[in-house]
Design a protein that fits this description.
Layout: H1 3-13, H2 22-40, H3 45-58, H4 62-66, H5 70-77, H6 84-100, H7 108-112, H8 119-128, H9 139-148, H10 161-167, H11 174-190, H12 209-212, H13 232-246, E1 251-252, H14 263-275, E2 280-282, E3 285-287
Antiparallel strand pairs: 1-3, 2-3
């Protein structure tokens, strides 16, 4: 894959997102990048933007967040989904404050040692905040590589091989490599989408292996996400919403989700929130963690 058409397309057409601006990087540095990456996990960009702005207005540094209570953190997370991310981010802020003097580390191993940070997030911070040369791979990147390089309609299950495939495509210069990482994600998110890709708008159209093969249906082996409606996730989210609305007071257990159609699912949701540290039970009262 020739990197230049993709780099030129990105510099011309990339969405104007807050975490990409020079002002954002100047105001929040690597901390802003880290918070945005936590929030963007499995959450649409349009939902993240207002929450990110509110979060950084309240806690503009790791040290500021480290001084908050878990209850404040969970409440501020609101309806972003997967609320364990809020507690992980809070723990990471404490660790950054205690271990690194309040400065988000640059080294990938040091980032991986922080709570809630996996390989993708560590590499994203190192590349997008500090400009280091590493492959960064998300679902969108994997789809672009599957089609443009491998001639497949969809990528296979995530694998460590994905990093090697992306590394082989990165330009030599650190700056270009960082832009290429972002450009591959952007292309997968806006043009090379999972359904009805807009191939006629793609800067890689002339060299895409999948297009050259006639855009064959090569199958899709990815695991499907369970339906949200009626799921344990929905029950957990409903309990958390009740606790956020009642904060700082708690809610009697007997009054929680009394109309929920599956009592055992409701109890599972409550038990799992307590196990994850997202709620605390004191006698017959459930509340956000203190």
């Amino acid at each position: 894959m020739d990197a230049q058409p993709l780099l030129a397309w990105y510099r011309r057409s990339a969405r104007d997102l807050p975490w990409r601006s020079a002002a954002f990087r100047e105001d929040f540095g690597a901390w802003g990048t880290l918070v945005s990456e936590f929030m963007l996990q499995q959450t649409p960009v349009t939902r993240v933007i207002p929450h990110l702005e509110a979060w950084l207005a309240r806690w503009p540094t790791p040290r500021a967040l480290a001084g908050a209570s878990p209850a404040e953190v969970v409440r501020q997370w609101a309806n972003l989904g997967y609320p364990r991310r809020a507690l992980w981010l809070h723990r990471a802020a404490i660790e950054i404050t205690e271990r690194h003097g309040g400065v988000v580390p640059r080294d990938i191993d040091a980032l991986l040692a922080l709570s809630g940070i996996g390989d993708y997030t560590a590499r994203a911070v190192s590349v997008f905040a500090y400009g280091d040369r590493h492959p960064v791979v998300d679902t969108n990147t994997r789809r672009v590589i599957a089609r443009a390089v491998l001639g497949q309609a969809h990528p296979g299950p995530p694998s460590r091989r994905d990093l090697g495939a992306m590394d082989a495509l990165l330009p030599a210069a650190d700056d270009d490599a960082a832009v290429f990482n972002a450009a591959a994600m952007e292309l997968g998110a806006t043009v090379c989408v999972a359904r009805n890709p807009r191939c006629e708008q793609c800067p890689l159209l002339a060299s895409c292996a999948w297009v050259a093969a006639g855009r064959p249906d090569t199958g899709d082996t990815r695991r499907r996400q369970a339906t949200f409606e009626g799921s344990d996730r929905q029950a957990r989210g409903t309990v958390l919403r009740a606790l956020r609305n009642a904060a700082p007071e708690g809610v009697p257990l007997a009054a929680l989700l009394i109309d929920w159609p599956d009592a055992r699912q409701r109890d599972r949701a409550i038990d799992s929130l307590i196990a994850d540290g997202l709620a605390e039970a004191d006698g017959e009262i459930l509340s956000l963690p203190r």
